[in-house]
Amino acid sequence: MKVTTLLIICSGLIFGSLGKPQFPEREKDPNFWNLGAQQTLSEALTLQDLNKNKANNLILFLGDGMGIPTVTAARILKGQLMGQSGEEMQLEMDKFPFVSLAKTYNTNAQVPDSAGTATAYLCGVKANEGTVGVSAAAVRSQCNTTQGNEVTSILRWAKDAGKSVGIVTTTRVNHATPSAAYAHSVDRDWYSDNEMPPEALEAGCRDIARQLFENIPNIDVIMGGGRKYMFPKNMSDVEYPGVAKQSGLRKDGRNLVEEWKDKKKDKVNKGFYIWNKKQLLSLNPNNVDYLLALFEPGDLMYDLERNTETDPSLTEMVEVAIKILKRNPRGFYLLVEGGRIDHGHHEGKAKQALHEAVEMDRAIGRAALMTSTYDTLTVVTADHSHMFNFGGYTPRGNTIFGLPFTSILYGNGPGYKIVSGGRENISTIDYTENDYQAQAAVPLSMETHGGEDVAVFAKGPLAHLFHGVHEQNYIPHVMAYAACIGQNKKHCVSQSGTDGLSPVLSTIAALLTVTRLLS
Which of 20-34, 360-374, 395-409 has the lowest mean pLDDT? Predict the structure, then answer.
């Protein structure tokens, strides 16, 4: 009772302090704001000299569920982790010079899921919810609607152009986002044959784990979780021996990892399979041509819960991936997913979600140090938003997770609680705990996605083509255009008669090509 009273008194003190501005002294001086704005204006004027180089490298950072409120809250959290009030902080993605909005709806859903959206921003075609790598003519869970409706991804286009390609995710490598890069499945949940109905198997449909290795056999870098979908049913996991729920799931008896290793033994190029951080950091990237790294049976651990001795961070995975991929003089395409932002939100665990977003921003910063905007187009976006927001007139520098009441709220989800006919008094509980479920307005066992547009941040060659508001499927078309891959080659000329394509970007040619893409 005394603790509760003390917390309530502290809350009152915070409210009372609103009359005394809690911000840096320099912000009282108009010159501080005027000079800052003038500097920003000067930097903006330099953007008139557009980067029209050919993009040799393409990087897409996908924050699963990272809507604009999540971006803002992550910015504040990042600043507060660095001892600042937070609001004035810059995320790495904030530094990108071009920003646009993407409309996220699926062809059959106003509020989308991660599968249909992944098909849009990877394959360039909008699709139905729950399906990956197939057009809207395919019907979810109906195997016989797969054939003839397959659509290929920008990862495939890059591979066909001779580039190295990679996938790095904090989820299972056969989860919705990464699977759209290589699979054609009418059901995102067909992770292995164990999750497929007998009639689908009999009709010839293949599980997503199989497709990872069979559709594009030589993906250069694959990093994430999902071990249990690759091994025979009941085969004990290397990290969790004897734990049934972590054991293999495949009913067909296949060991996809061993099959991958066997195929790589026959090649001059060197392939490595690893499953922990020590193995990852022990690799010499100059001696690695193919890497399969599966760090968990399912999704990777939340960054806050991660064992830093055995589990790599997203930043560490991205660094190794780029070191391997950049050895190819023809360049590379890399898909990076901060996938557990979404999971944190679904569980109502804002602290987990926001720390995942901050970690992805660190990975964006690491990639920036290893590449150049001269020849690398980097795009940061989200597949969809969430029913997440924060507000309530909290004072400057108020902890993003703190009192006088939690400014973070969900429109729906498991955080809905009524105690004695009223709202739960959070002063009596530990709202700073990692798994604290923020309050929600509507009771649901799992919080849902949001339907608003998401931000698209871009830098590098032709990044200025990300402008205004576009359909989400526009994203891979721009990236392919910048790199002269896929169907976007007509604007390119050969400097030597073979390779070395570069865009011909006269005003007329550029306008005609972009108009054709949009029509």
Answer: 395-409
Is 332 inside a domain boundary?
yes
Please tell me what DSSP assigns to residue 298. Answer: S
The count of other CB atoms within 10 Å of the CB of residue 8 is: 15
Which of 405, 403, 395 is CA-nearest to residue 19? 395
Full residue range of the structural domain in which residue 265 is found:
51-387+451-483
Mean pLDDT, rounded, for 375-384: 98
Among 17, 42, 85, 114, the active-site one is 114
Answer whether residue 512 is part of any domain. Answer: no
* 345 in a known ligand binding site: no
Q: Could you give the CA distance from residue 6 to residue 3 in angstroms, rounded to a whole number?
A: 5
Handedness of CA 105, 480, 169, 205 (dihedral sign): positive
How many domains would you assign to the chain?
1
**Three-state DSSP class for residue 228:** helix
Q: How many CB atoms lie within 10 A of CB 277?
A: 20
The CB density around residue 111, as the number of other CB atoms within 10 Å, is 16
Q: Is 427 annotated in the active site?
A: no
Query: Residue 20 pLDDT more than 70?
Result: no
Is 177 annotated as belonging to a binding site? yes
d(CA 74, CA 422) in angstroms, rounded, equals 30
Which residues in 266-328 belong to E strands, given as ranges? 271-274, 290-294
Q: Cα–Cα distance between 305 and 89 in angstroms, integer?
A: 25
Helix (H, G, I), strand (E, B) or coil at 456: strand
Q: Is the peptide bond before 404 cis (omega within 30 degrees of 0)?
A: yes
Q: Chain-centre distance of CA 60, in angstroms?
A: 8
> Could you tell me the CATH number of the domain that includes residue 129?
3.40.720.10
With left for phi above 0 and alpha for psi between -120 and 50, is residue 429 left, alpha or beta? Answer: beta
Lowest mean pLDDT among 109-118, 221-230, 404-413, 454-463: 404-413
Ligand-binding annotation for 337, yes or no, is: yes
Q: Is residue 356 part of a domain?
A: yes
Q: Is residue 14 part of a domain?
A: no
Residue 209 near residue 294, CB atoms below 8 Å: no
Euclidean distance between CA atoms 426 and 416, whole angstroms = 12
CA 179, CA 188: separation in Å to the nearest integer? 8
pTM of the model: 0.91
Q: What is the largest CA-CA distance in the chain?
A: 81
64 marked among binding-site residues: yes
- Examine the pLDDT at 138 and tell me if it is beyond 90: yes
Amino acid at 362: R
- Residue 80: partners with Cβ closer than 8 Å, 6 or more residues away: 86, 397, 399, 400
Q: Is 346 annotated as a binding residue?
A: yes
113 is in an annotated binding site: no
Torsion of CA 189, 346, 388, 169, to 10 degrees: -60
Closest to 62 measured CA to CA, from 303, 316, 339: 339
